[in-house]
Specification:
- This protein is 0% helix and 48% strand.
- With 114 residues, the chain is mostly beta strands.
- The strands form two sheets. The chain has a six-stranded mixed β-sheet, with no helix packed on it.
Length: 114
Amino acid sequence: QVQIVESGGGLVQPGGSLRLSCKTSGFPFDDYAIGWFRQAPGKEREGVSCASSSELSKYYADSVKGRFTISRDNVKNVVYLQMNSLKPEDTAVYYCNAIGSSVWGQGTQVTVSS
């Protein structure tokens, strides 16, 4: 059974940090690039970051460059998103996706507020 489960979200003050995890199973994890996306209320889902299967290529949206870091563990089949210097505009539900597949997790809520 193909499955993606995100975790690690929560409420954090501006300037704080969170580390999101994306645990996958049921498909050849190291054959896929894995991406993080987010969707804020009333807005479309947007791409945040992506790591190629070998982790040699990484993408970051301009809005998170220098603050977020993506990494993956191809043994544990997990992708992480370290988020530092969080801003209120980072508030959203964060989702993980195996690029090119239709498999999505349920998302994890990140709220940045004082």
